[in-house]
Amino acid sequence: MVKSTTTIDDIFRLALPASTQLLAGDEYLGRAVAWACSLRPSPPAFPKLDGNEIALVDMEDLRRLDPQMRLDRVVFSLQSARVAAIAVMGPTDRAAVNAARASGLVLFQLPDTTSLVQVERTVIRLIVDRAGYLAQRSAELQRELNQVALVGGGLEQIVRSVQQFAQQPVILLRDDGAIATHAGLDELSTQRRSALLNALPGARELRSRAAEQPLRAAGSPQNGNSRSTALVALTTNGSGDYGQAVLAPVVAGEGIRGYSLLLRPQSAPPDVTAVEEIATAQCAAAAALEWAKQHAVDVASERMRAAFLDELLAAEIADEQAWVQRGASLGFDLTRPHAAWLVEARGIPDWPAPLTRFLREHNQHAPLSRREEGILVFWPADDPKTARNHKAIAEELVLNLQRSWPRARVRVGIGRPAQGPALWLQSQHQARESWRLGKEWKGAPVTYFGDLGLYQLLTALGTNPEAARFHRKTLGKLIAYDLEKHAELVPTLEGYFACHGNLSQTAARLHIHRNTLTYRLEQIATITQLDLDDPDARFSLQLALKLRPILR
C-alpha cells in the first residue's frame, strides 16, 4: 500500500531543491514529518516545537542570532526538541554531521541559492494538502514525459527522466518479460547488473501479479483507494542491491503491453512511497503512449509490406528489376534469395507483434502478409540452394513464444529459397505444404520443405485431378468402410507397410493378435480387389497412402 503520511523521504524527493545533499541519517528517511519551521535571526530562534518538524537553518541567520553559536550545538538542541530532520543552507562542518549521526537526525545540505521561505511553504503544502501536491508533481512529471515523446526521445529518454525524478533504477519490460530498456544501473558492475536483470520476475509471474489485484490503467485518475502499482519480490540475484520492485502494467487499448518496474533497495520501507507511486505509474503511462505510437507506425508499415507482397505474388513477373526497385523503396533487398515461412500461432495476444519484434531482434526487414493459415513471411537467405539453417531460427521463435505463452500453439512451414521475385510464389507453395504436412503428422513444430523427401515430389500432385482419381480408386472403398464400420483397416495397412510386410512386427506395432492382423489383411484385399502379394498392387496402395495427406 501507499503511505498517506508525509515522510522525510517524501520531502527530500518532492519538496527540497533538486541538488539538495543528504549528509546524515539516510536510515531515518521513513520518519513522518508534521511541520516545517525556519530559524529566525532574533530570539526565539524557533517558534514552539511540538516534535517531528523539519527545521530549516540559514547559517547567516544563525550568525546574526549568535555569532558564537556552532551548528553542532544547534543540532543537539534540536534533537532534544524531537525534530525529525534539519536542512541547512550555508557551510556545514564535520562536527555538525557527527552531531546529527549521534543524535539520530537526518541532516540535509541545501543549495546556496535556496529560498528558505519558499522551501518552508512547499513543505507545509505537501504536509497539509498532500493529495493536491502529489497530483501537481505527477502532472509535472507527465508534462515532462509528454515533451520527451513530442521531441522523439523514445523509451530510453522516458526511463532516464523517470529515474532522475525517483533517484531509483527503472526497468521497462515488454509483455513477454523481455527487457525493453532500463536506466540507473550504470554504477553496478557488469556481473552484478546481469545478476540483477536475471532476477526480474518472468512474464507469467508479471501477468499473475497484474491479475491478482484490480490494478487500474497507469496514468488514469486515482479514486479513493485505487492504485496503479503493486510490489513484487525479486529472486535472489547475488548482488544484494535490490530486493523488491514497484510494478505498474503498461496498459494500451484493451490489454497489457508491458510493465514498468522501479527497483527498491533492500533498506526500503515496507510501503510504496509517494515518489515511487508517481514515478512507476507515469512511466507506465508514457510507455503506453510511446508503444501506441509505435504500434500505429507498425500497422501502417505492415499494411504497406502486405500490399507489396500480395501484389507480387499475384502478378505475372515480367520485369523482375522493376519489383526489385519497388522493394528497395520499402527497405527490402530482393536481389537476395528469400525463403517463405508460414507461421501459425494460436493463443498469443497481440499477434503478430511478437513476430515483428523477433524480426527486428534479428535485424531482418522482411515482407510479410496475413493468410488464412497464419502469417506469411519471406525471410532473406544467405544460401540460394537451401534454407535448412532457417529451421534453427524458426525453432528459436517457437521456443521464445512458448516460453512466454506456455499454452500457445505454434507451427512453422518453410519453403526453399527463391532466387528472384519470379520464384517467390513457388516458395510460398512449398511453405504451405510444409506447414500442412507438419500439422497433419503432428510432429515437430517446424517443417522444412527440403526435409520432406518423397513428399517434395508428391506435393506437385496435390491439385492434379488424375492423382485424386487414382487415390479414390485405390483407397476410396477402404476409407468408406472404415468410416461406416468404425474399422481400422487403413491404419492397419499403413502399419503393415511400415514393418515391410512382417506380420509379427506389424501385430506388435498395432497391439493386436496376429490372427486379427491376418483377418484384416484379407478384408483389405477383398475390399480393394488388390492382391497384397503382387508388387504392383503393393506399390499402388503405398502411393495412395502417401498421397492421402497431400490431397486432404
Describe this protein's structure:
By secondary structure, the chain is of the alpha/beta class. The protein folds into 4 domains: 8-128, 3-Layer(aba) Sandwich (Udp-n-acetylmuramoylalanyl-d-glutamate--2,6- Diaminopimelate Ligase, Chain: A, domain 1); 132-289, 2-Layer Sandwich (Beta-Lactamase), CATH 3.30.450; 315-452, Reverse transcriptase/Diguanylate cyclase domain (Alpha-Beta Plaits, 2-Layer Sandwich), CATH 3.30.70; 461-551, Arc Repressor Mutant, subunit A (Orthogonal Bundle), CATH 1.10.10.2840. It has 20 helices and 15 strands. It has helices at 8-14, 59-65, 71-80, 94-103, 116-128, 130-150, 154-166, 190-198, 203-212, 274-314, 320-329, 353-361, 390-404, 424-441, 455-458, 465-485, 489-498, 503-510, 514-528, 535-551; strands at residues 21-24, 35-38, 53-58, 85-89, 106-110, 170-174, 179-183, 230-233, 242-252, 255-265, 338-346, 368-370, 375-380, 409-418, 446-448. The strands form 3 sheets. It has a 5-stranded mixed β-sheet. A hairpin with a 4-residue loop joins strand 6 and strand 7 (179-183). Helix 16 (465-485) packs across helix 20. The longest helix has 41 residues, at 274-314. It is elongated. Residues 215-226 have low confidence and may be disordered.
